[in-house]
Amino acid sequence: MLLYLLITCLSFFFFSKSLSFPQWASKTKNLLSFYFSKYLFTNSLHQITPDLASPVLGKMSILDLPDLPLDCILELLPPSELCTMARVCSSLRERCVSDHLWEKHLKTKWGKILGPSAHKEWQCYLSSPYHLDSPHHKTSHLGLAKIISLMRSLSSIFRDDDHRRRYPSSIPLDSTMNFYLSLETGRFWFPAQVYNRENGHVGFMLSCYDAELSYDTDTNTFQARYPPHGKRAIAVEKDVTWERIRAAPVDASPHNLYVSDSLNELKPGDHIEIQWRRNKEFPYGWWYSVVGHLESCDGNLNHCQCHNSEMMVLEFNQYTVGSRWRKTMINRRDHREKGNEEDGFYGGIRKINCKEDIEMWKRLWPSSILE
């Protein structure tokens, strides 16, 4: 009996070494090997003679695993395979739609471009009549079939109508999985900001504007809808890439003046973003700038007193020297919206403290100086 057990264990060990596992499975191979070896060892202690009624090891179900190793396996599955596992049986479906599994995927893929406003909009979307009247709400299993069929890796899952009737899909509307799939399929338009609006149009270089975005899984890009300006219609831009999108850094409406809280500490060389709009009907966008020296200052940091002055110079160095867009001055002690219909209106200021944000602006720098 011991010889039989030794041969079985060695065979299983060499067989597992010869298999080519996918990336996620290789991380769990040791865990499964430990569990199966433990299963064989405990059986050998309690089973001296063969039991013809005992289940064959090769027919063991994944549901026979304890909760901990099963959860570890599910945590390593990508979203497409989690959706596939959810179709196997009701027990796995209950596990595969749980929030703790999908929160990691949501954060990994969408975390950098989803701000508080996007989460608020999602809650409003769930309670809106539009969402309640959607096909997903009326027939949840057909809604999920439509969603997952749009994902390229899952295009053939729902061909078996009989299987669909026996295992109807049921995703809670307020679940993280539903949030993820709604983003993945472009069904949910979320608020964010887009750098260099209209793909680097000369009038929007080194700016960032609010928009509603919808993801296109086929091109791995976004469609952006910019809010209307006065009597102008909604502007739409396609093929917006991931690197041009960010979550709004402050929770402020693009139509309201941002109340600045760092004006007194700003000094020459600091990187800032300032609100600017063409006229009163336009929403604000955020524009990149650097704090400069006053004309009375020679720029020598050892003698510079610009930070003690009420007036502060903001430089937009993407414009040529002498351009009316190159510099503007604001009063740091009593700063309000400043400007006119010809030069536009300057609004609130926020200091950029994150090096990653500064590097992002530098990567977007135009290839030639603007007039």
TrEMBL record:
<dbReference type="Pfam" id="PF00646">
    <property type="entry name" value="F-box"/>
</dbReference>
<keyword id="KW-0732">Signal</keyword>
<protein>
    <submittedName>
        <fullName>F-box domain</fullName>
    </submittedName>
</protein>
<feature type="domain" description="F-box">
    <location>
        <begin position="59"/>
        <end position="105"/>
    </location>
</feature>
<dbReference type="InterPro" id="IPR001810">
    <property type="entry name" value="F-box_dom"/>
</dbReference>
<feature type="signal peptide">
    <location>
        <begin position="1"/>
        <end position="20"/>
    </location>
</feature>
